[in-house]
Amino acid sequence: MVSRSDDEILELFRDETSKEEAFGLLLKKYQERLYWQIRKIVISHDDTDDILQNTFVKIWKGLGNFHSQSQLFTWMYRIATNESLSFLKEKQRKNFGSTNGEVEELLLASLESDPYFDGDNAQLELQKAIIQLPEKQRLVFNMKYFDEMKYEEISGILQTSVGALKASYHHAVKKIESFLISREV
């Protein structure tokens, strides 16, 4: 099967007779990438599945109003990121009674108890280091390092200047290096 362009999928979606087919194509094209974006933010596989489902519900509801001011994937990535961050804030509120609790504690607990994590000790230590980062640095590091996204793409998703993203990435790398050096035995 030939992969359809985003414009072709949007065209199909706008036609009531092919709306569901278009959404299926969108799912097939982007589900895995969005899954891993969410998973890097919330750590837990089960939570990721729930958030991914909510993300695609929001995409379904909003796709008719999408007017291509940004790329389709950038728009969907932003929805997935916002859904993930909202989930973490809600989980933090439930666990700590406010939004001032430590989200890092929740993520670390999820990482350490995740039966789906199959990395070695070095990968586990890297994930622990990433979890210690402030939220924005964690997002920027994951998108740049793991997803190999360009700063311009990240800028569209996080709605932040390229200069600020470069600074966040630089600080994140330094903090991760420092964390890993301090953990060496």
In short:
This protein has helices spanning about 5-15, 20-40, 45-60, 70-95, 105-115, 120-130, 135-145, 150-160, 160-185. It has about 180 residues and is mainly alpha-helical.
Describe the structure.
There is one protein chain. This protein is an all-alpha fold and 185 residues long. It folds into two domains: 1-103, RNA polymerase sigma factor, region 2, helix turn helix motif (Rna Polymerase Sigma Factor, Chain: A, Orthogonal Bundle); 119-185, Orthogonal Bundle (Arc Repressor Mutant, subunit A), CATH 1.10.10. It contains nine helices and no strands. The chain has helices at 6-14, 19-42, 45-62, 72-96, 103-113, 121-131, 135-146, 151-158, 162-183. It is globular, with a radius of gyration of 18 Å. The termini are far apart. The model has no long low-confidence stretch (mean pLDDT 88).
